[in-house]
Amino acid sequence: MAREVLEVLSPRPGTLQVDGTVGAGGHALLLAGSIGRTGHLVALDRDPEMLEQARRRLTEGLNEEERPKMTFAAQTYEQLPHVLREQADGRPADGVLLDLGVNSMQLDDPGRGFSFLREGPLDARFDRTAGGRTAADLLNTAPEKDIENWLRTYGDERHARRIARAVVRRRAEKPLHTTTELAELVRACYPPAQRHGRIDPATRTFQAVRIAVNDELGTVERGVKECLGVLAPGGTLAVLTFHSGEDRIVKHLFRSASTPPEEPDNPYSVRSEVEPDFELVSRKPLSPTTEEAERNPRARSARLRAIRRKEVRTDGG
Fold first, then answer.
1. Domain extent at residue 189
2. Which of 159, 179, 214 is where one domain is finished?
């Protein structure tokens, strides 16, 4: 949804634009080309390997005459206020983009453990340099009820209880170590008639485990609030989601930020006359075109929401 992202953010020459989940740098390259030499692009990613790929892509893809100032930070977008203080003299952002979820390159690398298509370690961490628990650690130690809740909440997995029970049974005999071991276990939990549909039975489990390993929904909740706080007047925050849980959080936060607060002492919860600082760019999320969904099946579930900080009024009203 590159075209929709650019239309929503409307990056102008000389502005400060942030790609808070830069990935391989595709969106960032478009933003950098729009703001020119007088602009400043701040690129963040919690995955140092993806951040380095983005750095190379942007450096090689833009000649010096059109290249803006560029700052790269191996951080989550929760840390954006700190990055702007340290790297941009505290300047507020004119535009912030968050493209949530997993990058195609991460999925396609079997060594990262995000996908069941090829055998690899059961890892699924975005940042392997920071330590932390892997998918194998979680599945081999977490209580059965926790595993069931992750599968149900993060993956909408209808067989969550059966799969969680199978994981606990299996690890008592031999711990899970590889992506193919987990995928085979999950498929065996499905009735035979449901094992060969359009979507592999392991898809929802791998999504749920990845979200749990990286605390992705918690990061969205905390990070979107931080990004709202650094917007300049007229600045826009655009969030591209691929999971219903992410989209619900963003929808709630955007609605709360753009709605007048309730009077705390009013028993009827009447909205106050205080104007909110933000306004929704569109009431409903934007979706990919039919052509894009056909060209890129991973984009089918994409939803783009945007919110803008209101301009400072100068009429004294």
1. 112-214
2. 214
Asked if residues 127 and 46 have their Cβ atoms less than 8 Å apart, the reply is yes
Taking only the tens place, the pLDDT of each residue in 108-158 is 899 999 999 999 999 999 999 888 999 999 999 999 999 999 999 999 999
Q: Which strand ranges, in their side-by-side order, compose the sheet holding 231-241?
A: 69-73, 40-44, 16-19, 93-99, 231-241, 303-309, 278-280
Would you tell me how many other CB atoms lie within 10 Å of the CB of residue 32? 25
User: In terms of domains, do 202 and 243 share one?
Assistant: no
Q: pLDDT at residue 55 above 80?
A: yes
Q: In this structure, are 20 and 90 located in the same domain? A: yes
Instruction: Evaluate whether 283 touches 297 at the Cβ level (below 8 Å).
Output: no
Q: What angle do CA 101, 107, 110 make, to 5 degrees?
A: 145
Same domain assignment for residues 241 and 205:
no
| 226 and 85 housed in the same domain | yes
* 276 bridge partner residues: none
